[in-house]
């Protein structure tokens, strides 16, 4: 598989390093959309359609197993992109948007996470000419793609693809207790000297606290310095029969193991938030979602790039998945030379303290970074 790397260079060729904006807006709802939730979704659609709205919006669905049909078990997430943070601010401060957001009730079950993505601290790579992520924004549509040669496929390459890597170590002040303990057990030679945090793993489905809603607004006016945002995308919808058989037999088990570990053992990986989603549509009368289960993506926040790098290198299933994928997609492999139709993309963005903000209104405890408010306030 030939990977290609687009940089955030545009036909306008910015000289001021103005960040783009990736905004995630979530609506938490039970298995079936209620009239109130349908109204919230319709209102979000309307404000996204404003003249200074996002250049592109993609809808995904995060779900978990409900105990009953009234459980808040799903989240519709609008993944909205703005080419310029200036455009986003004009939209956010407009009367229509302010009126909607300020009128939300204390039990709304709606949240937002806003990332200002600097082109100096961003990397996007894809194995397909079909654009995804920030490359979908109209102003980025003519971005130049550069081949990544095989010699560049090594641990740490994400760091070296980020323009500011020579002048910035991208380190946060924190390391998770579980990750540090594992480093000590494995006798890692250089363990970062950072403040130790106890990160939270998600509750089990048997935990009654999983359905507890925190009424009112939890506002995070900033993030943790050098927090890492990672978005991974997989489109399996064009798979051939042979390709599907190879993935089921040799790759999928490791991929599932890797994703399950990231989600369920977040402390071990330095993960603050993990969401596994499927691309979806909402039917015309806003009564139900129409998921496309073969087009998936993950939204992950790590303490920093170092936590992400260590997690990838030290986790068996991630290593096995990567090796199996490359074995079958290399030129001499069964899926090499264009035979493989799976489309994979990844984006990473390093967020300085002021590059992130979030707000959770009447959301489930544990939503996003809501549970880390005290830590973030003090950071």
Automatic annotation (TrEMBL):
<keyword id="KW-0479">Metal-binding</keyword>
<dbReference type="Pfam" id="PF13816">
    <property type="entry name" value="Dehydratase_hem"/>
</dbReference>
<dbReference type="GO" id="GO:0046872">
    <property type="term" value="F:metal ion binding"/>
</dbReference>
<keyword id="KW-0408">Iron</keyword>
<keyword id="KW-0349">Heme</keyword>
<protein>
    <recommendedName>
        <fullName>Phenylacetaldoxime dehydratase</fullName>
    </recommendedName>
</protein>
<keyword id="KW-0456">Lyase</keyword>
<dbReference type="GO" id="GO:0016829">
    <property type="term" value="F:lyase activity"/>
</dbReference>
<dbReference type="InterPro" id="IPR025702">
    <property type="entry name" value="OXD"/>
</dbReference>
